[in-house]
């Protein structure tokens, strides 16, 4: 099935929220889906659409200092392992680079081993930063330079 990556609209974000469990399982991350990010940074908030709905999405933006920050990236449960996450990251990297980004950044929880492995496969450096999200709340912080280029399969 053909999947097209394009800018996310408000209808797309509402659909993602309606199907939250398909992307995040039992993890309650609805509150992280800030509609204002899609409203204000439409060129770097992307969805992968197909005939049967949204297969994946990325919500991100470019900081004034040239960092393309990925706030959320997810693929639907029936599309994992297809390379769609890599395609979404590449599309975000291209959009962020066009907006002046020189590097990419993302964060995840220390226990999210799937995300850590995924980002490392994409060429990100990973560093655990103590108290990143408040006292006693370490996070894994990812960095990589642009352009995105080739990534491991």
Could you walk me through the main structural features you see in this protein, from its secondary elements to its overall organization?
By secondary structure, the protein is α+β, with helices and mostly antiparallel strands. Helices cover 29% and strands 31% of the residues. It contains five helices and seven strands; from the N terminus they run βαααβββαβαββ. A seven-stranded mixed sheet has the order 1-2-3-4-5-7-6, with helices on both faces. α4 links the parallel β4 and β5 (103-109). The radius of gyration is 15 Å and the shape is globular. 30% of the residues are buried. The mean pLDDT is 93.
Summarize it.
The protein is of the alpha+beta class.
Encode the helix/strand succession as letters. EHHHEEEHEHEE
Query: Could you list the spans in which at least 5 consecutive residues all have pLDDT below 50?
Result: none
Mean pLDDT: 93
Instruction: Tell me the β content.
Output: 25-35%
**Strand ordering within the main sheet:** 1-2-3-4-5-7-6
List how many beta strands DSSP finds: 7
Shape: globular
Query: What gap, in angstroms, lies between the N and C termini?
Result: 20 Å
Defining traits:
single chain; about 150 residues; alpha+beta; 7-stranded mixed sheet
